[in-house]
Records
---
Amino acid sequence: MAGSPFRSALAQFEKALQYVEIDAGIVEQLKKPARLAEVNIPVAMDDGSMKVFLGYRVQYNDARGPFKGGIRYHPQVHLDEVKALAFWMTIKCAVVGIPFGGGKGGVKVDPRRLSAGELERLSRGWVQKMFPIIGPDVDVPAPDMYTNSTVMGWMVDEYSKLAGKHTPAAFTGKPIEVGGLDGREDSTAQGGVFVIKELVKKLKLTPSKIRIAVQGFGNVGYYTAKLLHDAGYKIVAISDSRGGIVSVNGKDMDPAVVMKTKKEKGLIDGCYCVGTVCDCENYKTITNKQLLEMPCDILIPAAMENQITNVNAGRIKAKIIVEMANGPTAPDADTKLFKRGITVVPDILANAGGVSGSYFEWVQNREGSRWKNHDVIAKLEPLMRESFDTVWATARKHEVDLRTAAYIIAIKRISEAMKTREKIYK
Ligand code: GLU
């Protein structure tokens, strides 16, 4: 398949294999998901008709703990993509050392075209179909692209009804009222910011001089830009799926104000507005393609896979790329970027704050307790900083890029778990 995300994922995996000694049988198992579920979900539409939506769950590997990963609602969701995302979850959980395996789900749908009622029936339908193969000790879904805490609230309610008991740990990323974690909403971004701060310290850079361009303005892109802005970094460009804005004279932009404008006008492509006063002099429009290639210090892809490819990798001007999206860089682009001396902080580390927040939520639910936001930060910060330091040291030791280093760490951990669990005595 051209541009197959799963093929890209396997290419990254194979690249790292030369640095680890692992059993051929384990390699063979890691190249395939443990289970693929494809379901058809009938939904009663508001106009009285019935529509059937295609849903997926890929359970990739659970050697280190229950399968874990989000559910994506997107019109272009396909099995190959969900497999790649489930594989990356397996690697990601191992990189940060949380006791989960990897999985991912999806529904082929454009959620913006459904009413709230239709979306709720679809979400409950997904749970009804997947109920036999998910659960707190088996497979724990969470939000991903175009799903959110509201969707998780419906899903956990449906699961609990089917189970006949409260089961908050069956899903993470829930609303606070039904066992969600105070801090899960921005934990992906928080994690990325801790990683960036650690990298900035290593490279002895000055935050106020660092110009940042962010592609994507969903949950992850927005909070990452906002937290970096609040920490004194310069946000010079922001885009969403329809386009973006760039500062013409290097002036810093405030993501909270951009979000307000987006909510009011539905677009961030246009003038930069503060309240009702719009500034069309300091900001101009930019396409997503231009944003990736613009002069800046840190480029943050926080949208879709496959944004940095062999075609544009030679034109990237940023010195650092921090992958807050899953799979934004194609493997051949990776090689090019490494040769050009561009540091790529890989998705499996940079955005692992999300699933780490989910882990804390799962623990909170299983303890029957309530964590405070500062408890979450107090756990997340050392987890992300230490994970970054381990990846950094491994990259230095083997003289490889950070992605390969993260894979080396993860493959060793997963393979140890598989070997320990499945010892076969001859
Ligand atoms: N969807 C997020 C990710 O790609 C979070 C998954 C989770 O919390 O389980 O990492």
---
Amino acid sequence: MPSALITGITGQDGLYLAELLVAKGYDVHGLIRGQNNPKLDLVRELLPTVTLHNGDLTDMSSLIRALRDSDPDEVYNLGAVSFVAYSWEQAALTTDVTAKGVLTLLESLRLHTGDDPSRVRFYQASSSEMFGKVQEVPQHERTLLWPRSPYGVAKVYGHYMTLNYRESYGMHASSGILFNHESPRRGPEFVTRKVSQAVARIHLGLQEEIVMGNLDAQRDWGFAGDYVEAMWLMLQQPAGDDYVIATGQTHSVREFVQAAFAHVGIEDWERHVRHDPRFMRPAEVDQLVGDAGKAREVLGWKPRVGFDELVRMMVDADIEAARSGW
Ligand code: NAP
Ligand code: G4F
């Protein structure tokens, strides 16, 4: 039975990936942080067979212990301070976790694997946020990186460190440059879930309006369930490599809002939306759209869920949740 250790198992992707690996027959282990993590019950309920290990990406000995106790064939590093807006407020923490945490995990893995550094396969959760002020459209694996936030800069560090460990030590290390991916499990701080929750509540008469930032930004939004399959596929290849994972379609935040309201039959959506500069960012990533041609050719990966289905899925899930008094 293959085994895997997932950092960030309490997050959106961690939950989907753990479910995927359990379904494939893996012995799945997850790193969980904090003395009383509020997501612990959820993880135990959804993933009763998963073994949890206490640890934190900033604490090397906890990572070495988790590697020793889980003895994984594959390590997926999904743990991060992942909210871009927050990364300006806590830039040093973001750097410690999202940047230096990658190095700490890679070094722990190198110590763990000793003379045979490629025996454990490693996945790093890189991000389209690294393209920032985009230098070409669409963005692919060789597009120049120009990050626009402390989070983006931290991800660039983790990305290059992963490449560097692959080239320096012969590790089987892959970096997935994933464009935005969403689901009903998306954290409510991110724009799609903020909108789907608000639209559900407005539809049910529980809320009047939603307060938003920049509606002009464009993102290449896919479904998280599709994207975790790409992570797994990367680690099944003969050697580590870097892959862009994206749908190739881009939509503005305004279009997402409009589609979410349209799904519940509200066409005059603008009267429910108020702008607040509080949600604007010091520097914006204006347009992301990815070219996932390499993933399609090498991994045989392509997204299944499109934009309209994603919007409907998220709004319907939040209507259901609101009805059952979430
Ligand atoms: P998420 O829902 O925000 O989950 C982040 C995870 O990181 C949580 O499990 C969190 O645990 C964990 N974490 C935070 N600080 C940690 C620390 N110090 N040590 C160990 N774990 C820590 O993020 P996601 O959307 O699932 O994304 C997964 C990964 O992909 C992240 O690295 C993100 O940056 C990256 N990514 C995401 C997207 C996207 O569109 N979703 C796109 C590209 C890349 P707690 O529950 O304890 O806070
Ligand atoms: O949903 P967002 O917060 O996601 P963002 O910044 O694109 O980052 C997400 O995707 C990255 C991949 O590219 C990941 F690496 C990262 O971890 C995270 O998962 O914001 C999307 C857009 C931004 O342009 C933002 O300015 O929506 C705009 N926006 C407009 N009003 C808003 C709001 N974003 C949020 N969170 N809240 C608003 O009220």
